[in-house]
């Protein structure tokens, strides 16, 4: 376990903070899964983003009758 | 040949010529379900009475001269993520058991408007959050997985229990089961096909597309499914395209002269089953024989594919399910439940990094398509694994979960939103299908359909069903 990994007790606090109640029996498996996900996602911290914006998922013209391009 | 074995194009031609009745065709497909679906379990719900009534209505309308087009009277299976009015839509989950939508998804409505006959709802891996579809068996081999998450749809097309089907693809869920079942699966450009009324896994990555027996059939079905939908905020406002007519015109020459096919030097052939690699490289060589220029290409940012895919999908899936994850978490299967719970602990900063990485990838892939028109690669690293298999081991000593290995080659086209067409290119020594994917720039569906169509014709035409005994 690296210093960034969550212990089961820490996973419980984080879930509580997120408004997600987790039973005692869920803590170990959720912590392990969350730590694995975090390990995968952490590679993105290598990227130099500069002023790169997030990919848009929304067209502000949505709903307008003449929205067709 | 039995009617259930006909492709969409062949059935449409026979119906238009008065040689085949829609009632005969639907009867044949329903009888086929009776013969094989007890074992294969492609269907979650079969709407037998409604299907027969639709077929009878199609027959009357066509006889009266009101022919709606090539899908009129053609049987279709819809993945159980797509809302269908008055027909259960369960998303493969106990969470939605007995859920009956009030209205059709846009795709279901468009297909019904084109006269297609809804046979039923096909099995999906629970909420599309997996690549196995454990409910369904692979018709090529009883002990192998169907793939997923659109496993039911792919198996229905491969086994003759649907003339065509519809699936969704967030990390390969159309292309993976299509490749594993020896059928054609198209993940269109992001936003080309409406997702209104389709249960979401990841808003950033979800796509809806056809699963068919031939490339020509995919073009026909896409032409009906695609197009602007004011009810879907991410749906592109592009003019309708007659993909089938384009395919016919572009295929007339029968060759691929003037076309540049990119062959990846990295990523897509790394840690791939040798028989899959051999079959795909042989198919690529065939494209060269058919006149295409083969160009080595380097795929950009491959070390960030998995992180970008997960960084988008994992938190979005958890957000979609946040209410039921709190009210009825025990109704989710364990593999889905733990991902949804863990997904709530992903930091917003990591989600934003994934969104920004997506922008970088999109720019890099745009530059890639300056060099080539199409990229050809394996659809999946392996053929269908055994149903009890959890992982695959590679010669370099690494071990990869089945889910990870099945997503690996699919994810880039989900992240970049480019169209990707999977088509069969052979069988391995166990008789299991191998698929090749063809990718083009955004809204390049006509290009992938052209390349796939010319290849398929040169190989003697597609449309082969899995050898399932009745």
Q: What is the CA-CA span between the terminal residues of chain A?
A: 52 Å
List the helices and strands of chain B in order. Answer: HHEHEHEHEHEEHHEHEHHHHEEEHHEEH
Taken together, the total number of domains of chain B comes to: 1
Biggest sheet layout of chain A = none
Would you tell me the structural class of the helices and strands of chain A?
Answer: mainly alpha
Characterize the overall form of chain A.
extended
Number of strands of chain B: 13
Residues in β-strands, percent of chain A:
under 5%
Structural class of chain B: alpha/beta
How would you characterize the largest beta sheet of chain B? 11 strands, mixed
Describe the structure.
The complex is a heterodimer of chains A (69) and B (470). Chain A contains 2 helices and no strands. Chain A is mainly alpha-helical and 69 residues long. Chain A has a domain at 8-46. In chain A, helix 1 (8-17) packs across helix 2. With 470 residues, chain B is an alpha/beta fold. Chain B has a single domain, classed as Amidase signature (AS) domain (Amidase signature (AS) enzymes), CATH 3.90.1300. Chain B has 16 helices and 13 strands. In chain B, strand 12 (420-427) and strand 13 (433-439) form a beta hairpin. In chain B, helix 7 packs antiparallel against helix 8 (243-251), helix 7 (215-225) runs antiparallel to helix 16 (445-458) and helix 8 packs across helix 16 (445-458). Chain B is globular.
